[in-house]
Amino acid sequence: MSLFHTLPIFLCIIFFTSTTTSTTLPPSSPSFPSGLSYHIDCGSPTNSTDQFNTTWLSDRYFSGGATGIVSEPLRFRHGHEKTLRFFPISSGKKNCYTIPNLPPSRYLLRTFVVYDNYDGRSHPPSFDVAIAATVVFSWRSPWPQSLARDGAYADLFATITASSEALICFYSFATDPPVVSSIELFAADPASYDAAAIGKNDSVLVNYGRLSCGSKQWGPGFSNDSDRFGRSWQSDSDFRTGRSKVRAMSTRSRISGTEQKPNYFPEKLYQTAATAEEGGGVLEYELSVDAKLDYLVWLHFAEIEERVRRVGERVFDVYINDDNLTRVDIYKQVGGFAAFTWHHTVKNLSSSVLSVKLVGVVGAPLICGIENYALVPSDPSTVPEQVVAMKALKDSLRVPERMGWNGDPCAPTNWDAWEGVTCRTSKNNTALVISQIDLGSQGLKGSISDQISLLSDLVSL
Asked: Average model confidence (pLDDT) for the chain?
């Protein structure tokens, strides 16, 4: 069974300038490796091709761990949901997948995580997941029963720059073994989702809801429909609230203004919509979120009803958490059968629910899609030269798996550094550096790599 779910995260967030923007023709953006994607079937020994003609790679790029199979594989629709990799404490508290040779770009990362009592212990694990130096997903035991049994998809947008690799790390709490069933990467335009306005490469966009209104779930991995960035779209039906009767609409007509840079929103998104049945009605949605974070809300509209042919025939107000933010007349903005988007940054949200409400002024409100992303600023990572030095030291001393010397030696900062390693921030506060290494009690044998000289901030060895 496939359930889409974005997990809560618990981080301190810096504040961004609030923006409210409508868009008809997105600005130009640099080229990106369109079509580049990786699909890793964690725990699987062989490559495979699914019903949507997606090639799944056998498990690779991992630092350690072991493989497992869900306890009831017949309940899962896709092959990549049935196998998993887990990281026992003997592999260390921190383990990573490192996907190499990636062109610099923004990427969508999607994971599927399931427990399904694969180990017979009836204890779903507690662990964190990080992309590079930034914690993005947190799993805490006990999981809700349905989540433990059926698993969950979660995704985000992150930027890979000069490092040319995607570093996805798992950190164990207590002795719990982290688990993962699949990892996917899709290249996305670096300028997508108003990147310049929200901090360029400094933010990770964590998905807290991506809804297609008036339709079923669709997108790569769930249907034969395409999306340039690999986005999957949930049905909006489970997120509607309020008393107004809602009518689903659809059209096969072409929608102009779709598949355009930098966001490449697919035409299918605008060929369905939800509207209130009576004129002047209300459409209401509620999305679960984590408080004290900033959220980027992106709304999608297209006038796909033939009878609306003039400006002023459908007008409605948009409220987010009871704040009246804008008045929308789709036909006035773009005419009929054309895509129109509007987005807004909600700062330091104090509630655990983000509500979107469309209130009819003339006629009934209409919406095609809703996206909601937490804006998570990227945490600092270790100076690259010092990472090189520490990896060389790991190899020369033959550091065992149990010490968890994987990924970044110092980051994320809310995890422990590599065992025996002490870190601090650099003098300019832009990165992390290694100040001390104490391996005296580990019984290690080997030589000290010449690259130890790259540890220019080391005061004790």
From this structure: 90
> Which three-class secondary structure string do you get for 243-302?
CCCEEEEECCCCCECCCCCCCCCCHHHHHEEEEECCCCCEEEEEEECCCCCCEEEEEEEE
Residue 398: CB atoms within 10 A of its CB come to 9
Closest CA to 328 of 295, 287, 356: 356
The verdict on residue 242 lying in a domain is yes
Q: Is residue 184 part of a domain?
A: yes
| Domain that includes residue 321, residue range | 205-377
Q: Quote the longest CA-to-CA distance of the chain.
A: 79
Q: Up-side HSE of residue 394: CA atoms within 13 Å toward CB?
A: 21
pLDDT at 108 over 80: yes
The tokens describing 221, both together, are 């991995």
Angle, alpha carbons 330-368-105 (nearest 5°): 105
Both 353 and 403 in one domain: the answer is no
When comparing pLDDT for 58 and 244, which is higher? Answer: 58
At residue 201 the predicted structure's pLDDT band, cuts being 50, 70 and 90, is low
Tokens of 348: 């330091």
Compute the half-sphere exposure of residue 245: CA atoms within 13 Å on the CB side of its CA. Answer: 4
Distance between CA 256 and CA 234 in Å, rounded? 23
Please indicate, yes or no, whether residues 43 and 163 belong to a single structural domain of this protein. yes
